Amino acid sequence: MTDDAIGYDTLVLGGGVAGCVLAARLSEDPDRTVCLVEAGPDLGPDRNTWPDGVLNARALPREEVWERHAPAHRIRARLLGGSSCINGCWNTWGSEADHAAWARRGGPRWTATAMEPYRLAALSQMGMSQAPEREFSPWSTSALAAAAELGYSQVDMGTPGGPGYGTPLLNAVDGVRHNAAFAYLDEARPRPNLTIIGNATVERLDIRGGRVRGALVETDGRQRTLLADSYLLACGTFGSPALLMRSGIGPANHLLDLGIRSEADLPGVGSNLVDQPGVFVPLQPTDELNAALAAKEADGDLYVSRMLVRAASELCPVGSWDLHILPVAGPPLFGKLPPGQYEAGISAFVMNPASRGTVRLTSADSATPPQIDPGFLTDEDGHDLAVLRSGLEIVQRMAATTALKSLAAPVQGQPAHHLSDQDLRARLGTYWHPVGTCAMGTADDPLAVVDGEGRVRGTTNLRVVDASVLPTVPAANTQLPVLAAAEMLADLIRGER
Ligand SMILES: Cc1cc2nc3c(=O)[nH]c(=O)nc-3n(C[C@H](O)[C@H](O)[C@H](O)COP(=O)(O)OP(=O)(O)OC[C@H]3O[C@@H](n4cnc5c(N)ncnc54)[C@H](O)[C@@H]3O)c2cc1C
Q1: How far does the centroid of ligand 1 lie from the alpha carbon of residue 17, in Å?
Q2: What pLDDT was estimated at residue 4?
Q3: 228 exposed, middle or buried (CB, 10 Å; 0-12, 13-18, 19+)?
Q4: Is residue 363 within 8 Å of 347, Cβ to Cβ?
């Protein structure tokens, strides 16, 4: 231990979506000292000091990320506010079945009914609202009509319910991304009991006898040890399992291979990675659509999408949904097109995949990125491929509606739902909602890493509170569920004093 050890009541490790909620809510208690530690920069409350790309909600930025040139499924933010600073600002909610699955593993506090107050708290704190009409391009407006033409009814995307189409809630106003650092920390920063340390990577936890004795943190090439009574890990789905494994908590054999002394043999750490794969079906925009999108862009109101369909595959339980169908038109997500030309198309995403991937270390050194295998479409029963094909068939029908076919034509070639498995795999993308690598579960679940209150098995003062504890991915975008889960666990932790 270095001689500049500093102590707090609670250390929050990782300043992303969940970390911002935890730091803000726990420091509302003036008798608790809280320190929030983030590997990336703390850009502060003044919007003028933030890069335009990170504030601009019209595009997904590639700034302030862990690895600049990594494959898409590895992209994650490295700055205070976490992935809320670089994400699509879309907020939707999962189904009753998603919550029932969580409640079976984590107890009744995870049901949709029990989580409702926390969902509402997150909506309010993030200032989420419906997109104003001017942000709808002709493509998005026609996509609403197309969904109705296919027989879907309009639903509220922010609540459970059934299949249907609608508009997600946004945490962006006038094109400015309102991230979790703004929403949760602006009012918390002046509190004397809250310390925020940016540019500080947690290398590992010093754990002995099941108790965390300190967090070893690297700042500006210098190591310090931060001490606390309790430690809350919020480094995200890739960062939290990596930090646990570097600290000796994880699959014992894997740690042995890397020369890391095992403190707790938890095979679930870094296992059970689940993310939502999807395929984008490109369409050829007409000259009229290109011109209309160009006019929108000139007005500063071009957003690639403002609607989605919650759809059910043939394998989906009646009354629920297991697909997001997402029509987009605008500048391409990857690459560039000549001025005045845009990309149009429709994606299908598998929302409740059965396949599982892994996060593993290749070195005990915190500077070496973990190995991430998303495991897309690897389930033995072929469930995910079948759901994907079903979604692509819906895409095909949506593209052929009267509302959309006058704006964009099919491109040459086989319809996507008839492509070979190999071709589909080659076209696979991610919806960027990875969860599950420190999954909660019951005491008899060999893969459980935490209990329903976030406590790490075999330890006494360590919790994980972030997307990694969700054992299954909800049929939703994950930001709002993670915000609500962090609100709920913060409330629980506050009540323990
Ligand atoms: C490109 C992209 C687009 C997305 N779009 C949407 C969307 O439109 N809607 C939606 O609902 N969800 C979206 N998501 C998902 C959503 O952002 C995540 O579900 C959410 O951010 C998860 O919160 P978290 O707190 O678990 O992790 P994060 O928000 O990722 O926070 C983790 C934080 O921990 C820090 N950290 C990691 N390791 C360490 C360490 N060793 N020491 C110190 N700090 C560390 C990181 O730098 C980061 O700030 C998107 C994600 C991405 C990447």
Answers
A1: 6
A2: 53
A3: buried
A4: no
Nearest to 74 by CA among 242, 222, 219: 242
Question: What tens digit of pLDDT does each residue of 86-107 get?
Answer: 999 999 999 999 999 999 999 9
Class of the CATH domain delimited by 6-95+178-273+434-495: alpha beta
Where do the domains of the chain lie? 6-95+178-273+434-495, 132-166+276-356+373-430
37 Cβ closer than 6 Å to some ligand 1 atom: yes
Report pLDDT for 412: 86
Least-confidence region, from 70-74, 252-256, 351-355, 442-446: 70-74
Angle (deg, nearest 10), helices 479-495 and 112-126: 100
Q: Which of 235, 463, 464 to mutate to test the pocket of ligand 1 (most atoms within 8 A of CB)?
A: 235
Q: Give, in words, the CATH class of 132-166+276-356+373-430.
A: alpha beta
Higher pLDDT, 25 or 4: 25
Residue type, 282: P
Residue 225 has pLDDT above 60, yes or no: yes
What is the distance between the alpha carbons of residues 411 and 35, in angstroms, rounded to a whole number? 54
Closest alpha carbon to 347 in 378, 309, 400: 309
